[in-house]
Amino acid sequence: MTPREIVIVGASVAGVAVADELRRLGYEGAVTLVGDEPHLPYDRPPLSKDLLTGRTGPDRILLREPGHYADRGIDLVLGVPAVGLRGTHVALSDGRVLAPGAVVIATGARARPLGEPRPTLVTLRGLDDGLHLRRRLADAPRLVIAGGGFIGAEVAASARALGVDVTLIEAAPLPFAHLLGGQVAAALLRPHRDAGVRVLTGAPVQRVDHVDGSERVHLPDGRVVHGDLVLAGIGSLPNTGWLDGSGLSIGDGVLCDATGATGVPGVYAVGDVAAWYEPEAGRHVRHEHWTGATEQARSVAARILGREPKAAPGAGVPYLWSDQYGSRIQALGRPEVADEIQVVRGSLEADSFAVLYGREGRLVGAAGRDAAAHVMRHRQAIATAEPMPLQPAAGA
Amino acid sequence: MRVTIDEDKCCGYAACLSVAGKVFDLAADNIATVLVEHPEGELADLAREAAAACPTAAIVLLDDRDRPDGGA
């Protein structure tokens, strides 16, 4: 039975996509979108890039025009965190309790901290974080970035564009090697060094001390890196604290079946907070991908309305991108399980390249830099695990 | 239905190409181009999927009377 009211907790890209898809499918009941931040729903990818460099402003990164929600009868409740869930009843921090027929949890994730947060030991997840970091970078600090993942790499590139002194510290011997393989990872590291970033690898940060107005970053071999500002980009934690006592199964995220349903009737989860069961992996997996979040959102919206979710071709193939030093890096599928790499465009020594990843003779992933078409056109072939090596596609 | 690209919004993520490679391609400047301007049937469905998949909402679908149609 179609619920009379649907509440979406989390004004994220996934939450907004659920609301939009409900309306697109013709749902006429009440839709309420609850967000803990006071801001209109905004897009996070620019926070580490154009927002940081000042190329764009907070009003330019909104997910939808301000009038979008009223036009579609989507009620926004912003600046009010949800604090509890019982069945499908959502308790808000201002004392209100919403009692819809279905709830979609889209509360996302938060940055894993590296110590007690302070103005000079920061993370980057929300708009306020981004604006704070932007103000600090204007003072030309010595910036130390802990974590060579996508956030760390993108902030390093943005900070160098602003002329900031940057040290990038990574726990692994080579960032992204576990995900994309050593050769591709080496190709991705080169622009950092070319841009003048000091890169320290194989160095998990032990602790960060605030001494005499500056930060001291301690490494395992006794080295100490001095900085004025430290950014921790060391992963994320799902925002599940408000679900204590809800009866939901919580692991690394809200555990869901392969369609986003939790164990509590009428309660679903999407996006960074959700760990859907993946039959091919044989376990629950929490992804933090923009496109994956929107695909999950559309699928759950259909499911709540009793429709058969219609997956787009290649949907479910993980897709991530990262913009660094004026280049775009893209990765599709599951390169981390590959046993074979085939360069299909350019070379790993060049600025532009595309590679395919195979496992046991089947295509499992693709990646590239400044080769969007040559990466993205393989998405459906990855979904169907076509045999490697691929025949050249028409127009490739 | 007519498919157009808002070139100011397109950032070249090529999500459209991955969903509907028969309807969209990427030009040399990494801006999406439309291969089938008036898709029908299955191709029209794919164009709608691509519009929904676009991270920057750069795909504009117009109906026959040239009014915005979906593209949420």
TrEMBL record, chain A:
<dbReference type="InterPro" id="IPR023753">
    <property type="entry name" value="FAD/NAD-binding_dom"/>
</dbReference>
<dbReference type="InterPro" id="IPR016156">
    <property type="entry name" value="FAD/NAD-linked_Rdtase_dimer_sf"/>
</dbReference>
<dbReference type="Pfam" id="PF07992">
    <property type="entry name" value="Pyr_redox_2"/>
</dbReference>
<dbReference type="InterPro" id="IPR036188">
    <property type="entry name" value="FAD/NAD-bd_sf"/>
</dbReference>
<keyword id="KW-0285">Flavoprotein</keyword>
<feature type="domain" description="FAD/NAD(P)-binding">
    <location>
        <begin position="5"/>
        <end position="297"/>
    </location>
</feature>
<keyword id="KW-0274">FAD</keyword>
<feature type="domain" description="Reductase C-terminal">
    <location>
        <begin position="319"/>
        <end position="389"/>
    </location>
</feature>
<dbReference type="Pfam" id="PF14759">
    <property type="entry name" value="Reductase_C"/>
</dbReference>
<dbReference type="InterPro" id="IPR028202">
    <property type="entry name" value="Reductase_C"/>
</dbReference>
<protein>
    <recommendedName>
        <fullName>Ferredoxin reductase</fullName>
    </recommendedName>
</protein>
<keyword id="KW-0560">Oxidoreductase</keyword>
<dbReference type="GO" id="GO:0016651">
    <property type="term" value="F:oxidoreductase activity, acting on NAD(P)H"/>
</dbReference>
<dbReference type="InterPro" id="IPR050446">
    <property type="entry name" value="FAD-oxidoreductase/Apoptosis"/>
</dbReference>
<dbReference type="GO" id="GO:0005737">
    <property type="term" value="C:cytoplasm"/>
</dbReference>
UniProtKB/TrEMBL annotation, chain B:
<dbReference type="GO" id="GO:0009055">
    <property type="term" value="F:electron transfer activity"/>
</dbReference>
<protein>
    <recommendedName>
        <fullName>Ferredoxin</fullName>
    </recommendedName>
</protein>
<keyword id="KW-0479">Metal-binding</keyword>
<dbReference type="InterPro" id="IPR051269">
    <property type="entry name" value="Fe-S_cluster_ET"/>
</dbReference>
<comment type="function">
    <text>Ferredoxins are iron-sulfur proteins that transfer electrons in a wide variety of metabolic reactions.</text>
</comment>
<keyword id="KW-0408">Iron</keyword>
<keyword id="KW-0249">Electron transport</keyword>
<keyword id="KW-0411">Iron-sulfur</keyword>
<keyword id="KW-0003">3Fe-4S</keyword>
<dbReference type="InterPro" id="IPR001080">
    <property type="entry name" value="3Fe4S_ferredoxin"/>
</dbReference>
<dbReference type="GO" id="GO:0005506">
    <property type="term" value="F:iron ion binding"/>
</dbReference>
<dbReference type="Pfam" id="PF13370">
    <property type="entry name" value="Fer4_13"/>
</dbReference>
<dbReference type="GO" id="GO:0051538">
    <property type="term" value="F:3 iron, 4 sulfur cluster binding"/>
</dbReference>
<keyword id="KW-0813">Transport</keyword>
